[in-house]
Amino acid sequence: MPADPHTAVATVCLSGALEDKLAAAATAGFDGIEIFEPDLVASPMSPGEVRLRCADLGLSIDLYQPFRDLDSTDDDRLAANHRRAQHKFDVMRALGTDTVLVCSSVASDAVADPDRLAGQLADLADRAAERGLRLAYEALAWGRHVDTWEASWDVVRRADHPALGLCLDSFHVLSRTSEIDGIAAIPGEKIFFLQLADAPVLSMDVLQWSRHHRLFPGQGGFDLPRFLAAVLDAGYAGPLSLEVFNDVFRQADPVRTAVDGHRSLLALAEATAAGGTGTDPVGGPAPAVEGTAFVEIATGGEDPALDHALTALGFARTGHHLTKPVDRWEQGRARVLVNRAEGPAAAISALAVESADPPAAARRAARLGAPCLARAHGPAEADLPAVTAPDGTALFFCRPGVDSDWSGDFRTTRSAAAGLGVTAVDHVGLAQPFDHFDEATLFYRAVLGLQPGTAGEFAAPFGLVRSRALADPARRVRLALTVSLLRRGEWAPGIPEPQYIALAVDDVVAAARAARAAGAPLLGIPDNYYEDLAARVDLPSDRLAAYRELGVLHDQGPGGAYLQVCTEVLAGRIFVALVQRVGDDDGYGWTDTPVRMSAHRRQRLARRALTPG
Amino acid sequence: MPADPHTAVATVCLSGALEDKLAAAATAGFDGIEIFEPDLVASPMSPGEVRLRCADLGLSIDLYQPFRDLDSTDDDRLAANHRRAQHKFDVMRALGTDTVLVCSSVASDAVADPDRLAGQLADLADRAAERGLRLAYEALAWGRHVDTWEASWDVVRRADHPALGLCLDSFHVLSRTSEIDGIAAIPGEKIFFLQLADAPVLSMDVLQWSRHHRLFPGQGGFDLPRFLAAVLDAGYAGPLSLEVFNDVFRQADPVRTAVDGHRSLLALAEATAAGGTGTDPVGGPAPAVEGTAFVEIATGGEDPALDHALTALGFARTGHHLTKPVDRWEQGRARVLVNRAEGPAAAISALAVESADPPAAARRAARLGAPCLARAHGPAEADLPAVTAPDGTALFFCRPGVDSDWSGDFRTTRSAAAGLGVTAVDHVGLAQPFDHFDEATLFYRAVLGLQPGTAGEFAAPFGLVRSRALADPARRVRLALTVSLLRRGEWAPGIPEPQYIALAVDDVVAAARAARAAGAPLLGIPDNYYEDLAARVDLPSDRLAAYRELGVLHDQGPGGAYLQVCTEVLAGRIFVALVQRVGDDDGYGWTDTPVRMSAHRRQRLARRALTPG
């Protein structure tokens, strides 16, 4: 039986006014919050009203923060700071919270001598204790004299005051050091508070890094399970609280951000428990994924051009859904459903993974806050467990094999043909909506147990694109996520970007030649690309000629090459790629993506020019 | 008579496909372009077709770029690099360009020994010279061995080859050093090419800084006039070419970006000429601004609430326009025009500055690519020179004084009253549309001769906001620009942000009290703000009580304080602030902006709740 940690979130993580933030935290399932002072200052709710609102929402107020620049070498300044603290203690009493975060000072009058600093902190701890309050002292990574967890612990130890303890913030610690084993030796009762944040590994000014680029645990590059294990080993039993300053989260829907953050804490606790420390609130690791059961395309209506393209690509229409306007197409182990229901074309509307334990996978997804997908189904039809991914894609969990639970919903009209050599779905490419890229990565990582690869970035014709692939260790399920970094404003052609299905073939030239002969609408690639390829890679001339003839893109990687041929954009927002991996290639052809995007853009413009009116 | 430099822009600066970029460069008035290789590779136009297209557009192809990682300690690799270069030389011949940019190598096999490196470059220069081509060698700031302009010049000097010269890029130079006086001693004929880019002063990995954050000259923090002067002093007479990698420009309308970039080169040449080097293509410094002649609000129709508010704020309606539905309101030297023409409410639709020489100011603006504003006016009415700013605000140039050219268009109905102590317009606050913030800063700087202050950033309730103020040295005209950094997506309340007119008063408490007594809709500020203010600033209790009563915001700066009282949002998208500057205050109250924004958001929500339907 999983045990739930006490989860909390700092109001600064979320967008909106204080009331928006409190409601979002409660909706997402947090147990408590940290009140970030500027959120309170801008609020018309009095501290007492905030206390009541939180109680109504079932939220404890776990921390008031931050109190900055307390210590001073200037006596007048120190007196003014004490006066300021007294005001804040009154606010805390009215809020009904007992712990205040005190940051190490960044001011020019900060105290350098650790004993003098400890004395000043102990003095304030005396005042706090008189009111039943306590101070959690935190080393800012850019503090003037105290900027490491060791230095903050040294000061707290010297002060030796029961109302003075530590606040440990994973960003401040891990942005400076990986020496964290010593944390486990701190007496647990002296760790008053724990703030958790991830971040991408960047080489930049640490203050800017902290204020703009923090991420929820599991979205960045820090080893947070190791950090949390050290803190739990010390005996810390307080809240696991998120403090994430992120430019995107600051302006995104706060409920959505809160759900994402809550998921990150559960996944972190699970990962830490998997390492042997703490308890797992999710309930066991993700069941293994064993392949892609099917990919569904929603066409929004009849789409003869898509049917023609699938046929030309070697697919056979092998069945019809018993009750819905859905066709099943097959080739090798690749299965594509075409959903012709009237409505908006959604490109890839559903992805089904073959799971070693579909019900367990679905329960796990629900524990991780994945929205359950209710689908109408007939009495004899399979009730496949399904959730909705952040980009709106439906995610089904199926038993492995073509005779799986879902296949019974289809009346088989013929068997799959040999086709042109497609063996399976290599991966799907899901262009993500704005601002949900990190959320999507965490979602697929936590819910499916996929491992994210290195985040990439490339200059596309109409702006920068971020990319990140996820795959299971055996490479049976792969996802390629992309997002436009800044696309907005009036000059934004080609939105939304198409999504795609990449199909594995053993010989891309042969497959593409057969597809073209059958009339598949293959995407034309400019001659300039092949001139450049010839300059970069020493290819046999007949091979280069075949590439040029068929539009093969050749991404030369360190251990092999990723070869692909793409179709034109079909069904409004989708294309199909035939993919051959040469050698140890584990890539996704990102290098060629700008060329591919330009070609698709031209194709769409040409089509628009041909469309009357 | 100003002399025009040969201006060029790298295609990488602009968004779109190659044909979009070429068209944009020509439209903006550039004389030439640099072809960025990936733009050509993705293009269906052959090099010969690109050559013809450029000729049709009146653009010279000044540079092909980049050629990377030429030199090598590995003979096979070097041979492959030479082979690659031969391919590119063929491309250049077809393009009809004679200069290729060769970057210092970042590869692990880069040559460290300067003589060996010079020998390899000379070898390639031999091959280039055989075809009438030449190499411009550039030190990347993150080159493996060659990463300063001095090191690149040392290698070029050692090679001593007529077809090998330098490319100087202001970013690569100024991101590493301010020691640039020695550039003037380089023989001018050895500087083959000059690339210009500005950048904000950031502390981060120089490659990331370069690839994402470059700006056009005058938009960042580099001393580009000094840099350009050194290069011109060396005798360089080639193109002034922009190479700017910027996340925003990469996805913005390329014509707009190109116009912005072209303006930046003209303004840079002018500033350099003002320092004594080169020629001024703009034609003399900006005539002095002597004050704000008027601010126009477009209400889109009758707006009794605005009329009532202006009256309560002490304004008198002193006249009506002879032919248009425009009223003139006055108080002290503050003049507000209310334009009731039917149409979309545009908040601040026009700003008129008092100029020492309006016709000269307008000519100068036109030289800088400011779109001329054609306004219908009657035969007896003033034909005020006007241009359109990047945010759509009309910008008029008027003679100083209330009896100026423009005032004759109004029938005076009464004289201005004493009002409640407003003396003048302190500044206007212009919330900028997405992606045009840096463009706007450069526009107002170049066209009006205002000096930008330090760029700021603050956490507003619904996302980060960037801010930048501009003012003339005598502080007679001030502008406060803001922009939401990332606001997009569905969760985006409060867009567009209101704009405002800040009115100078000598006693904000007295003025606010009088305004409130007259029924002005002053904005309510939460008690929490005053609790926090009391904790931060030791104010007399009666003063604090008055602030609380009237909603005064108090931003304590180092040399004084900025006190303001704001109205609610009026006319859909505008508010008025009464501003008292205490001591040497030169600020804009940014610290209080999040509180003000939250209060306006509440006011707008409450108004919506009260509106039936």
From TrEMBL, chains A, B:
Question: So what does this one do?
Answer: Catalyzes the conversion of 3-dehydroshikimate to protocatechuate (3,4-dihydroxybenzoate), a common intermediate of quinate and shikimate degradation pathways.
Q: Which UniProt keywords apply?
A: Lyase, Metal-binding
EC number annotated for this UniProt entry: 4.2.1.118
* Cofactor(s) in the UniProt record: a divalent metal cation
* Catalytically driven reaction(s): 3-dehydroshikimate = 3,4-dihydroxybenzoate + H2O
Pathway-wise, it operates in: Aromatic compound metabolism; 3,4-dihydroxybenzoate biosynthesis
Q: Does the keyword Lyase apply?
A: yes
Gene3D superfamilies, alphabetically?
2,3-Dihydroxybiphenyl 1,2-Dioxygenase, domain 1 (3.10.180.10), Divalent-metal-dependent TIM barrel enzymes (3.20.20.150)
Q: Which family does it belong to?
A: Belongs to the bacterial two-domain DSD family.
**Name of the molecule in the record:** 3-dehydroshikimate dehydratase
Q: Give the enzyme class.
A: lyase
Q: Which sites bind a divalent metal cation? A: E138, D169, Q195, E243
- Keyword Coiled coil attached: no
What are the residue boundaries of the VOC domain, all occurrences included? 291-400, 424-568
SUPFAM superfamilies attached to this UniProt entry: Glyoxalase/Bleomycin resistance protein/Dihydroxybiphenyl dioxygenase (SSF54593), Xylose isomerase-like (SSF51658)
Taxonomically, which superkingdom? Bacteria
